[in-house]
Design brief:
InterPro entries: HAD-like_sf, HAD_sf, PGP-like_dom2. With about 250 residues, the chain is α/β, with parallel strands linked by helices. The chain has two domains: about 150 residues, 3-Layer(aba) Sandwich (Rossmann fold); about 70 residues. Helices cover about 45% and strands about 10% of the residues. The protein has a five-stranded parallel beta sheet, with helices on both faces. Helix 10 links the parallel strand 4 and strand 5. The two termini are about 15 Å apart.
Length: about 250
């Protein structure tokens, strides 16, 4: 094990991705519901939501309102129904959002991950989340006051974090993007915005994400990166060897 003298005083902040890194999600949960409601196979909805670059998820994660997101889905799904000569089903905006939020794993956050956040916080590190996420999911994770903070299982996590940065936040409104999909300035834009908000240099931060391409962008800016493969013992090991200490 590395000696404790190897602590790196330059590392001051840990930035975690959310989905598939800190907590899981499953888009198929929503696609399954749509398939039942519309009575057609779920794969017909993939291009409407997730086909890059025109899927509705991408502008939604850059700040498109939930109301407009649902309106655009109704417009696109109506075309799908006309093409298949089936009736457009009826569902409320509230039901759509409730089903949309079911994408997020309903389990409580993993205890050992919350424990690590506590220890890092106790060690004086800044704790941040940076997620490609939309208005509804960001509200769901933070605890939407308009719904009486009904979604509270992440309360401790959000309180431990200095901030949860959502790509759809009004002062962010840009996504993490892969170098194969955008120019270097476009790829770096969200990181530069977040670093400015934190008041930190790239080299003062460790960024943890399940997407290697996003990590490569941050490393190219002079930051440190850890690829999350699902094993948090590995993440703790790599944090330790990056000079981060908690106990």
């Amino acid at each position: 094990m590395t000696d404790s003298k190897a602590v790196d005083p330059k590392v001051k902040n840990i930035i975690f991705d959310w989905g598939k890194t800190f907590h899981d999600f499953d888009l198929d949960v929503h696609f399954n519901w749509l398939s039942r409601v519309f009575g057609i196979p779920r794969h017909h909805f993939w291009h409407i939501f997730s086909q890059y670059p025109n899927g509705l998820i991408f502008p939604y994660e850059r700040g498109l309102s939930t109301r407009r997101f649902i309106e655009r889905f109704r417009e696109e799904s109506a075309k799908l129904c006309v093409g298949r000569k089936i009736s457009v089903p009826s569902f409320s905006d509230e039901e759509f959002v409730e089903r949309w939020n079911m994408i997020i794993d309903p389990s409580p956050p993993a205890k050992e991950r919350v424990s690590l956040l506590r220890k890092l916080k106790g060690g004086g590190y800044g704790i941040y989340f940076l997620s490609n996420t939309n208005q509804a999911h960001a509200a769901h994770i933070r605890g939407d006051s308009r719904r009486g903070n009904r979604f509270s299982r992440f309360k401790e996590v959000i309180n431990l974090a200095d901030r949860f940065f959502g790509s759809s936040d009004t002062d962010i409104r840009c996504r993490k993007v892969k170098p194969s999909q955008a120019t270097k300035p476009e790829c770096e834009k969200i990181f530069r915005k977040v670093l400015a908000k934190i008041g930190a240099l790239p080299g003062e931060c460790v960024f943890i994400d399940d997407t290697q391409e996003y990590i490569a962008v941050f490393q190219g800016m002079g930051g440190r990166g850890i690829h999350c493969t699902g094993n948090w013992t590995k993440i703790e090991y790599e944090l330790y060897h990056a000079g981060v200490r908690w106990d």
